[in-house]
Structure formats: C-alpha cells, structure tokens
Amino acid sequence: KEDNSAAGKTILLPDNGNLIKDKKNDKRSKTAERLYRVATVQEPEQKELSSLLEKHKKELNRDTDVFHKQIAKKDARQAKKNGLKQVKAELKRDFEKLIAKTAKKKWFTKLLPNKRQLEKGKEVLALHMKQYSKELENLRQKRKDSKLTFTDLLKSRYIFSTIIITIMFVLLLVLFLQESQSKYSEIENRIQENSQQQVNNGDVYISNKEVETALIGETNSEIIDIAGYKNNIYVITQDNSFYQYDSNINEFGGIPISDEISDVVAIVPMPDLNLIFFVSNDSVHSFSPVMKRSDKHSIKIPANSDIIGVGTYLTFLYILDKNSGQIYRYPRAEGGFGSPIKWFSSEITTDNITDIALDDSIRVAYNDGSIEQYFKRKLVSSFLIDTQPKVVPKKIQTSNASDHYYILDSENPRVIKIGKDGNKLKDQFWNRQFEDAKDFWIHDGKEGYVLTKHNKILQFKLQ
Question: CA 382 to CA 440: how far, in whole Å?
C-alpha cells in the first residue's frame, strides 16, 4: 500500500498485521519494495511453484518413508540373524562349559572304561552283523538256487507227465482205431460171406460195399424222430423245433409250429388225411404240410403211458405202450380220435420190443433179431432173421405200397432190406456212420435217411 504524501514515499508491508514505515532513501525500503513487487506482481507464478514444491515434497516424504521402512526391515533381519548367531554361539559355549565341568566329575571318570568297552562291543557287534549279512546273503542265494532247481524239477515233471499222457492217449487212440477197424473189417467180412452165400444159393445179389452218404441237415438240439411225406423229410428235436427237408430243391430249414406241442416222442405221417402227427405220452397234435398249420386233436391216452412205437394205417393211429404191454388202435373221430381198441387179446412182454411197422398187418421187432407178424389181431408168423453178423433191430419200417420192410441195425451199422414174401434178405446198406444211429426213414424204396448219434441226417441211395 503506497502513500504519496509531501513528507515522502512511505511503503507499508504486511508483517504479522503491523506496518513497516521506511524512508525513500532507506536501503531497507528498497529491499522491501522489491519483495513487495515480487509478492504482488509474481503471485500466480509463486502459487504454481508452491504447488509443485508441495507435490514434490510429498513424493519425497513418501519415498523417504518407504526407504526408512526398508532400512528398518533390513536392520531387523540382520539383527535377528546376528541374534541367532549369538544365541548359537552362547549355547555352544555353555555346552562346552558343561562338558568340561562334567568331565571333572568323579562318576564320569568311572564311566570312561565302560565307554571303551561299549565302543569295543560296538565294533564286535558290527563285525558279527557283517558276518551275519554275508551268511544271510549266502542263504538267499541258496534259496534262490533251490527255488530254481525246484521249478526246473516241476517243469521237468510236467513235461515228462505231458509226454507220458500224450503217449498213452496216442496208444489208446491207436488201439481204439485198430479195434474199430477190426470191428468194421469183421462186419465187412461177414457181410461179404453172407452176400457170397446168398449168391451161391441162387438168391438175389446182396451188396457188400459201403454205401455213400450225403449230409442233408444238422441240428443243435437232439433229434427225437424222423418221418417222410411225399418228397419231404421231417424231423422233431428235443427243444420242440420242427424241420423240413425238401428233396426237390435240396433245402433244409425250420418250420414254425404251435407252442402247445411239447415232449414229443414220435412223429408219424397219415397220407390218407395229408397230415403229420406229433405224439406225446398225453396228447396228439397234427401238422398240415399243405396249410402249414398245426392243430390239437382229442385223444384218450392211458395214464402213465410210455410210448415206444407209433404207426398209421389208413385213418387209424396205432400206439405201442410199454407199461401196459398193449397196442392201442384209435379210429378217426370228429375233432380227433375215438376210444381205443386193445389190439392184443392179452398183454405181452414189451421189454425186448424195439419198434413196430404197419401195412395191412403189424410187424413187431425184437432186439434178438426176431420179427412177429400180426393180422387181424392174431399172430400169423414169427421168424428170426438169419444173417451174419446177427441182426439187432433198432427200428423197423414199411408201408402198404411197398413189397419190402426195412430194419435199422445200428449195432452193425447197416440198413437191411427184407422181402415180405418169404421174409428173405434182399439187400443191405452199411456205413460206418450208421453206428449207434437213432432212427431212419425209407422214402419210396429209392432213398434212405438215417439219423446219426451226432444229430446229423444222412442220405443214401437204395438203387
């Protein structure tokens, strides 16, 4: 604040609320004036400089604080480290002092000899441990060697046993083959002798050659029975599967039938009705090859029956019951079959009966090779088939249209052909695969079909 009075120029500067009054020529007045000018004229620049100064001052303070903190942490770590070293050194000095103090005690000096003995014992123990380790290693090696030896022995015994078993098996197989070959050779020789005897007697020629066969079908389940109708062959299996072989197209395949058909013991054709019958011990069903349909038929089969033979003639159904020793004849009736008629006037012994065959009479086959013929419920003939080897009938078959009847002799693997007139042997067809065959069927006297024990159906020619 300026005052231009006559007395002279006076400059007033704020100084803590007081006024400073100087003369114009006063040196301090000039300095004060310059300071005032700086203070008044350069105030904006000064504020900016002051702001920058404050900012830098704060940053400097912050950096300084950080620096002091780092220094403090470093000093603390160093102090801690120095302190630990000092503590360790002090502990070491205290321990050394304690050892030195203890070594001066009388009881400690008495323990020194014991200490030497302990050290000596320790050395001896170490020596024994070394020897024990060596012996243990030797034992381990011996055990390993013995184990290897035992394993080699086992391997040798196993190989030796395998060789012995193989040799025994080969010998048994050779003996079996020799026995089979001997058996078949004997059969062939007997057949040849029998054939030559028939030729010498002026009878028809009997074949002594093994017939050729062809496989036409095979099933997984056991085949129960076989039957033929026209150009087809039918078989039923234990799991109630029904198969057909069509000889016209040489095709074998399954045919669906009713689920009610079960536990079948035999199948038999009835050409007069164009039906095939499934016979069990308590029921009868039919199958139509034309309609491809199966139906149930009413029938009265005696309780607890054991059916071992079945046949048909015209529209009559014949059943041989082993338990009752009787053949029952069933006439055709509406919806099935009528009441049965006992064919035999008295019961017969069925223990040796193997099968029956029907045309206008009934032929009963026995396992001793004898055949009985019944006509109008009366026995008209009985004879023994005289051939070499001896015939053991398994199954017998004929038809009203044939002049022969046929017997399956599965024990001497062959099918023999016998004339109805005079019951003379007409021919025989043998093959090794017929051994233990279960059943057979002769179709029109031209072709034969055999069920083998392996559930295969073999076809052979009769002409």
Answer: 23
